Amino acid sequence: MTTYSSRPVVLCLSGHDPSGGAGLQADIEALLAQGCHAAPTVTALTVQDTVNVTDFRVLDRDWVLAQARAVIADLPVAAVKLGMLGSVEMVDTVLELMQSLPGVPLVCDPVLRAGGGGALGKDEVGYAIRERLFPVAAIATPNLPEARILAELPEGSADECAEKLLPHIQHLLITDGHGDETEVHNRLYSRDGSRHTFTCARLPGSYHGSGCTLASTLAGRLALGEDLPSAVESALAYTWRTLRDAEQPGHGQFVPRRLPLDFCS
What we know:
GO terms for molecular function: hydroxymethylpyrimidine kinase activity; phosphomethylpyrimidine kinase activity. By secondary structure, the protein is of the alpha/beta class. It has helices at about 25-35, 60-75, 90-100, 125-135, 145-150, 160-165, 210-225, 230-245; strands spanning about 10-15, 35-50, 55-60, 75-80, 105-110, 140, 170-175, 185-190, 195-200. α2 packs parallel to α3. The protein starts with 8 loop residues before the first strand and ends in a 21-residue tail after the last helix.
């Protein structure tokens, strides 16, 4: 693994969740737990809690560019993690930023719906992510409902969605935490035809911020120099532990416990 004189920096382009369960706070906590430094760039503001999202506002493009460029000019960005973008204009903003980061791995978490089901962007945002961002990303991490939206296959299986999406991206991790089976099957597909399945026990309840946790952790592992299949396995294992130890601070979903209780002691 690569050795750094300081913690590797991960640029996070995500929305702000005032409940602290998802979005940039999830990114920061997950990256701290990996030994990385999170550089949070706000793409959108949301009105949400642990139950659902009720409104959101995408930030002005110039503000997002200014935030990210300040980080890129000052810090050695080792990976980029995408969360909520919310508009086609923000997709184009990310593309412009990535031009100044050649060779830096991009982890794309295509946030299209909140955990409670509320939309976090119009349908054309998913199309723009697939057509414009997937080709420059190292990996995308949709859950199965998101993969179906991106693949335009409302009833498609993970395999069917991957077949439709892999022409656009090199690696695709489709998570399957929304079924009724006793085991969860998370599938890593690669354009070269290789495939890995990671199985874990299904946990009870529903969780707010699990996708953000997974994608941020994966970006952190790549920033640390871990190869992609190993980084995926590490990220899935860590995320499962955060869900196993989750807490319910509000009236809705459980929130992953990304940091140990004695983290600041």
